[in-house]
Structures are given as C-alpha cells and as structure tokens.
Protein: Calcium-translocating P-type ATPase
Amino acid sequence: MRTAEGLSSAEAAQLLKQAGPNQLPTEKPVSQWRKLWGEMTHFFALMLWCAAALAFIADMPQLAVAIIVVVIVNGVFAHIQQERAQHAAAKLRGLLPADVLARRDGKVRKVHASELVVGDVVLLSAGDRVPADVVLLTAQACAVDESMLTGESDPVPKTAGDQAWGGTFLVNGYGEAAVAATGAKTRLAGIAALTSAAVPPPTPLSLELRRIVRVTAGMALGIAAVFFLASLLVGFQWRDSFLFSIGVAVALVPEGLLPTVTLSLAMGAQRMASRNGLVRNLEAVETLGSTTFICTDKTGTLTQNRMNAVEVFTADGAIHVAGDGYAPEAHIEGRGVEKAAQAALAARTASQGRAELHDGQWRAQGDPMEAAMDVLARRLTGTVSGPVPSRRFPFDPARRRESAIVGQDLFCKGAPETVLPVCESVPGPVRDQLDVMANRGLRVIAVARRRLGGAPGTWQSAAAAELETGMELLGLIGLQDPPRPDVGDVIRTARQAGLRVAMITGDHPATAAAIARQIGLTGTPEYVLEGAALPEDDQVLGALLDRDGVVVSRVSPEQKLRVARALQSRGHVVAMTGDGVNDGPALREADIGVAMGLSGTDVAREAADLVLLDDHFGTIVAAIEQGRATYANIHRFLTYHLTDNVAELTPFVIWALSGGHFPLALGVLQILALDIGTDLLPALALGAEPPGRRVLTRPPERRHLMDRRLIIRVFCILGPVEAAVEMAVFSAVLAGGGWTRVRDPQVPLLMAASGAAFTAVVLGQLANAFACRSATVPPWKLGWGTNRLLVWAVLAEAAILGACLYLPSLAALLGQSPPPPEGLLLALLAAPAVLLADWIHKSVRGRLRRTKDQSL
Ligand code: ADP
Ligand code: MG
Structure:
C-alpha cells in the first residue's frame, strides 16, 4: 500500500487507464425491444389490440390492420419520447458536482470522483460522500451514515484502520483515507446490481396523470358501450354498431398523453439546467411550478459568500482593516493591533479554510469565512501559516463554534452567543460592541483561548464541551459578506410572482436583519424571529411565518424542519434551502429541497430535489419560472388534444341523436389519422413553448391538470366551434350534391363530404395550435419566431392533410375523397372561426378579470 502522501498524477493516470473510471457500472440496460414491447402492451395499447381482434372477428380486416398500425406507430413514438426524456435526465445527473480533495503530487488537489484510483489518498470531512471503498488512515470523531448499504440509520463511528464504503456519507468528524476499491469493485456496486429492480414510489404528478388516464379510458369505454346499445336499438346491424363504438372509444382515449408529458418535463429540466438549476427528478419540475413559499438561507444564496474580516475588537480597542478580497495587502488603522493580531492567529488556528493564490488571483480554499480568518492573520502579522493542530473539533451547526488544540493551547472561534458563555469573564463593552457590529450587517465571530493544564493524555480524548470552559476571550472579529448585486431585483420579481420569501439563517438576528433590509426583503413592521423563541404550537408558528419577508435567525436544523411543516400545514408548497449535514430531514420534508452546488455538503445535495449550480437565490426563482412554464405547456397540449376529441366525437353524437338517420361525418380510421397523424407534432411543439414573459407576473396556482378553466375552454368554446364548422361543411357538401334521403347509398358523395369534414377539423386544429400558445392573449400578439418548432409542426400537419386527401390509396383507406371546391372553401373557414372564438373568449375573460381586480 502507498504511503499517506498519495500518488503522483502520472501514476494516477496510469492506474486509471488500467482500472477504468470510478463509476458504478450502469445497470444492464433494458433492451430497446423490451421497452418498445412495454409501450405496446400498456393499458391503452391493450384496449386497441382488443379492438383490432374484435374487428378481425367481425370480418373487418382493414379496420383491424389500421388499428394495429396505430398501436405500432404510437408505441414507437412513445418509445422515442421516453428515450429522449431519459437521455436528458441522465445528462443532468452528469452535471451534479462530484469533486473530492485528494493528495496528488504531494499537494491537496480537487479531483473528480470518477478519476480516483486505488492508492489515492482522499481528504474527507463531515458532509462528504465517501467516493470509493476506502481505509481510514486518520480519523477524528468520524461517523458514517451507512443506511444506503445496511438500512441502519444510526451513524457508525469509525477510527483509523476502519473501512468506509463508497456511497456512504461521513456525517461527523474528518480524516484522510486511502482508496481500496473503485467503481464496479466497490461494495455498493454489488448491492446496486441487486436493488436496481426496485421501483421508486409514484409521485403526485404520476398519480394525477394516472387518474386522468383512468377517468378518460373509463369514460371512453362507457360511452362506447352506450353507443353500441343505442345503435342496436335504432335497428342497426350489430356489425355497424360495433364499428361505431370502436370509433367512439378510440376517439376518446388520449393515446399520446403520457409520453408527451414526460418529454415536456424533461425539456423543462433541461431549460432549468441551462440556467444553473439542476433537478434531481423530473417531477420536481412540476412541483417547482406550484411553489408558493421560498425559505432561503443567507450566506452564499442572498450574499456573495466572499467574506472579508473588516473589524477586530479587543480589550485594547477596535481596529479597522481595509483590503480587497482575499489578497494579503490591506490598510489597517485603529488601536490594539497587537491584541487583534493575537485574536486573528487564534482564529486561523481553529480554521481549516485557507486563502490561496490561483492564476494570479487570491481565492478561498474551503469555507470562505475561514479563508477570511487566514487572510486577516496574514494582514495583521505577515505570517503565511501557523502550526498544525494536534486535534480539532470541527464546526458543528448545533454548537456553532469550532476549536483546535496546538501544544498546550485550545483555540476556539464561533458565534458569540455560544463562545461568550464559556469565557471566564466578558467585559461590558464587548456585548455593546457586538450589537453595534451586528447591526451594521457584519457577521460577528468571537475568538477565545484556554491553556490546558495537565498531561496531554487527559485531554487528547476528552469531548469538546469538557475542554471548552473557563476560556479567555481574545476578541470579536467582524466579517463583511456583501449581498449579491442583483438579489434585490430577484426578490422584487419573486414578489410580483406572488411568492413569499423568508430568510432562514444560522446567523445573528441583528446581522440577518441588516442584510435583509439591505436587499429589500423585510417590510414594515419587521418580523425578525429567533429559532429558540419560535412558538411551541405549530399552528401559531404557521400563522406567524405566513407573511412575506420574515427573518428567522439562529435557527437549528430541527427548527428548519418545523418551519417547513408549519408552512405546509397552511397549504403552502415550500422550497427550503439547506447546506449542512443535518439539513437532510428539512430538505426531504419540504416540497422542494434546495441544495448548493458550490458550497454545502454532499449529504444536503443527496436529500435535495433542486441543486443550485451557482448557489444563487435567483436560480431558485428562475427554476420556479421554468416549472410554471412547463406546467403551462402541459396545459397547452392538453387543451389542443382534447379540442380535437370534441370534433371527433360530435359526428357520433349527431348520428346517435338522429336515430342513425344522419350519416357519420368521420369514420374510425379518420379519427385515428387525426389523433396520431396530424395532431401529434403540434402537440409536441406546444410542449416546447418557451416561457412567456408574464409567467412571473402572476400569482402561483395549485391546479389540477384538468381544471375548470381548461374544461370550459375545450368543451364550451374551442371544441364546439370546431365541431360546428365540421358539421356545417359536411352537411353543405351533402346538400350541394343533392343528398336528401335517409341512408342514401351515394357513397362517392359521402366520401367527398367526409373529406371536407376531415379538412375542416385539421384546419381548425391548425389554428387551435396557435390559439393554445397562450391562455390569455390571441396568437397574433405572440412573436412567430419564438416557437419555430410549432411552425414546422403545423406545416407538417398541412402536408399530412394533403396526403390524406390526395393520395388515392390513403384517401380510400380512410374512407374519404378530395372535397369539391366549395367544400374546401367552407372548410377553410374553420381556422378563422376557431381564432375568432378564441379571441372573444380571451377578451371577455380578460375583462371579467380586470373588473374583478378593480372591485377587490
Ligand atoms: P448561515 O445561515 O449564515 O449559513 P450557519 O448556520 O452556517 O449560518 O452558521 C451559523 C453561525 O455559526 C454563524 O453565524 C457563525 O457565527 C457560526 N459559524 C459558521 N461557520 C463557522 C465556522 N467555520 N467556524 C466558527 N463558527 C462558524
Ligand atoms: Mg452556512
């Protein structure tokens, strides 16, 4: 085995070539044929197969073959969409950050987890995912969450020499470890192969979709049965009756719905990723769209997480440090530089983060706040580094402090509330100064020291709390972390979009309030709460939090969880950020758990639904925008598709109402041609509609996919108009051809009239595709160029229409022929009729809404 110095990059590259990347073997892919088979044997497909079989039995081979073609075309299409969606999801997973710290060439370097090889030495600290099977070389208070391997959720303590398995999480302590097995050789790989068959539980969206599918399918079958009986009653041959009922069933079944929804979600996820928001499951796209409350932390999300220590207060007075970023140069003034330097050195000793020169620029390596302590020590003393501690008690959000032992000294730094109480004596001015600094928006850190008496043996194994007592306060350090420049605008946008934003932070209430004021988050009166003082009763808590601009400070992970629950019980859909080891439960409990891609822990990322690649608050709002847009797209193509169903069903209704005396305007095969021929591409293109400018100007709505608005629009406005033109055209052509008698066997005339009706429906849908682009404005107010796909889809739709009419064999199969010129002219009216109806509906609704707004 290699020593703790790690490998050289040349060795590592060589080993990587031999062993392959440190990745779990992708589970044996289900064969394409198997998946395709699945697409042809689900519920709808089985229904259609039955119909085909019955058609054969009833001696209608043409119909049977046509239905089979439909099943196959539909299945292939669904398969392609699913593949695209899965491909997109896999690509997103590849974007998740996966860097680890490894010793290479004698230096600590960031290495992608997939590039680790056996013999690498990695540095692990609390919150990290163990990147491969490793043996711990050093371990300080290490505990590992192995629940993903064993199901046991209590962390397992580990000491030097113990093994830790890849895929588990270090939830406490820190240490160095040598990689013992990678990729397919890890223990997790063996188990993953076993469990890959486990199906994840259904999400709300898939449940809702299943509900829609079940309801529509049941409706289709029910109506079909009624028609079958009705046609028998009016004296039809059972064979004809059967034909009609199949038509009704096929017309009503939304064959293309599910795969189109999946694909829309995948495209929404891709758009989010291009704006730095990474969803870890597709359904989160939909949940984001209905988010109503954002609980965000402060550091890094609202602020830049570029810490700069600007003030040090000691017994000798206050000094001010003016320097740029993490560069060592600075201008120092004030009294007590010597004592301040002492405090700074102590703070650096208790810190692991460092400032480093990288490509001519000084950057934070590790925690930015700790890097700022390093810089401060440099600026005040000129020293580049200090002694290496023999023992550390790393930062823990529950203790809110950390310490380290060097020689006989214990150095501690942390939140003043937790450090001052363990100090021997705290002079009055210190508390006053603390308030002054916090009120200026500075993050204040208290630094203390204790000379440990006795033999090292007694305190080398003691717990932190035993040692951190009777300390000597060295000083207060004030750090500046400026707000992100655009965060004020984003908060305004969020407000316009009806979202409520609360700051949930571990920082001091005065610091948090000052920053909240600077970015325009708080209103008047201000609501600044403290975690420990939150009301016990969940209902009271919910009522207190349910307003815009609340600040909750000094919050613990458990309190975060309570906040999420309290808001949810008031009907909110909550997005909650988190970065720490203990934030997992709150992130999982929230509807949308949000983790950071840059800072933050692997543990938090694992529990999150959304990962912000840039840690920026604005990315949450952008993701919500994309989520809403995606939801709107699903609505768009549902509206489009269902309108067609009305036009398809109407001929059957008229036929039944006339007691079978009025001929059918559309046959079963024409309906299938509409559903999977002309309709498919525009529906897809509507699913790709870019977000409207106004997506974030409306309040959030938690809506069912099939809500009242959609039902009114489809079944009372667009559908009836399209059907009316269809039937008018059909009757006009019949009348023009001299059709008078009931069941007149003038087949050519019927076919021409049917062709005209078909044309009217396709042209009506063509206009409908554009009408569905917006729920509020008529299509001519939208740019053409913003959805090119739709223009192409509509052109394809027209081409398919042409083929269905003028390719003699295809037209004959569908049971239609090219309509006469006057029929064609009349059919052309379908497009303007649909647009006109849509425009009137939208104007009336717009006016109604405005008067309602004014009366409020
Ligand atoms: P935030 O919500 O601002 O990210 P945290 O929960 O990270 O707050 O930190 C809470 C408090 O703990 C901070 O205000 C600070 O006083 C203290 N703290 C944070 N990080 C460290 C650290 N590395 N060392 C010592 N104290 C820390
Ligand atoms: Mg933090």
Q: What stands out?
A: The chain has three domains: 202-273+623-695+704-855, 277-303+484-615, 308-480. Residues 308-480 form a domain with the Calcium-transporting ATPase, cytoplasmic domain N fold (CATH 3.40.1110.10). The CA atoms of residues 103 and 217 lie 60 Å apart. The chain has 31 helices and 25 strands.
